[in-house]
Amino acid sequence: MSNLEREPHETACGGEGEAAEGPVRELLAGRDVVLGGTRGIKVTRTLPGRERRMVGAWCFLDHYGPERATMSVGPHPHTGLQTVTWLLEGEVLHRDSVGSEQLIGPGRLNIMTAGRAIAHSEESVRPDSVIHGVQLWVALPGASRHTEPSFEHHADLPRLVAPGVEVTVFAGELAGLVSPARVHSPLTGAEVAFDDRSAITLPLRPDFEYAVLTLSGEVEADGTRLTPGPLLYLGSGRSEIALASAGQGRALLLGGEPFEEEILMWWNFVGRDQQEIERFRKEWEQGAAFGDVGGTALARIPAPPLPTIRLKPRGRRR
User: What are the boundaries of the region Disordered (predicted)?
Assistant: First the structure.
């Protein structure tokens, strides 16, 4: 999924010094967004948020389901980012303008690098089936943001198995495990799945900032009990994190080096200033730069109108 809001707000974030310079515990509430009209899928969006807009290079986080729903997201554009799709239940068919067609299911990774420009669609293969997952974006640094678009699917990912716990590293590195997915800045993206009444302590990098999101059940992170909904921002300066669950909880652990560049997000574009966003929108409406998404009968999604006020930076944190 992507940002289908018809009146998207700009979000300017990044910049050195905006990450917490030590361990903190900030519980960040998300906001509910319905994607695809009144009968669409309801997501809880915790990044970008009112207080924190990024965790490392992670700049967008939607958690959806579990619910019976039909995903039907027609061709739409992206620039300057990577999309990361991670499912707990259900299946989604991805198609894009570089010719990829890939069905993704639970425990497998789709990662799409937009670079200079890409378009893609996402749709359910079985209408009204149970779907549960997360959609994340990773902001590309300046050296990579105009790279050629590409797509990767990884069915085999590194896993750490401990008594009652399984940790899957889908992006970046954690505890000596490195995902095969190509990323462009130092990152951590992992799912931690618990059986009944189990716990684990994972090593962290003190130069990374981290956050934890519970996906199902109840998970305790650094002494804070979390149910699905809010994102627990942990700051930096930590060498380890204790996670536990009294049931079959699942959590997402995100981290990365604080992103030093300011970025401007609007709709499905990541750029650096107003002029770039205006150009991306114009190129999508003209239909040339992003290419065609073949194989789908879904209608192309038009860009919403730009706001009447000038898009301007506001920093990673209010």
Answer: 1-22
Pairing mode, strands 269-271 and 263-266? antiparallel
Of 189, 187, 184, 204, nearest to 22 by C-alpha is: 204
- Write the pLDDT tens digit of every residue in 19-35: 667 899 999 999 998 87
The beta-strand segments (E) located in 90-125 are: 92-96, 101-104, 109-113, 118-124
Determine the pLDDT at residue 287. Answer: 83
**Tokens representing residue 257 in the block:** 């080096």
How far apart (Å, rounded) are the C-alpha atoms in residues 175 and 188? 10
Round to the nearest angstrom and report the end-to-end CA distance of the chain.
Answer: 27
- CB half-sphere exposure, 66, CA atoms < 13 A: 12
d(CA 68, CA 279): 38
Q: Which residue segments constitute the domains of the chain, with CATH numbers given?
A: 11-256 (2.60.120.10)
Q: Model-level pTM greater than 0.90?
A: yes
What is d(CA 120, CA 64) in angstroms, rounded to the nearest whole number? Answer: 19
Give the residue with greater pLDDT, 46 vs 288: 46
pLDDT in tens, 167-182: 999 999 999 999 999 9
How many residues does this entry show for the chain? 318
Tell which residue, 80, 86, 74, 138, has the closest CA to residue 114.
80
The whole-angstrom separation of Cα 145 and Cα 177 is: 26
Q: Where are the beta strands (DSSP E) in 36-149?
A: 41-47, 58-69, 72-78, 81-89, 92-96, 101-104, 109-113, 118-124, 129-139
Q: Provide the pLDDT for residue 19.
A: 63
* Cα–Cα–Cα angle for 177, 192, 136, rounded to 5 degrees: 85
Distance of alpha carbon 210 from alpha carbon 241, whole angstroms: 10
> CB–CB of 143/155 below 8 Å?
no
Cβ 152 vs Cβ 111: under 8 Å: yes
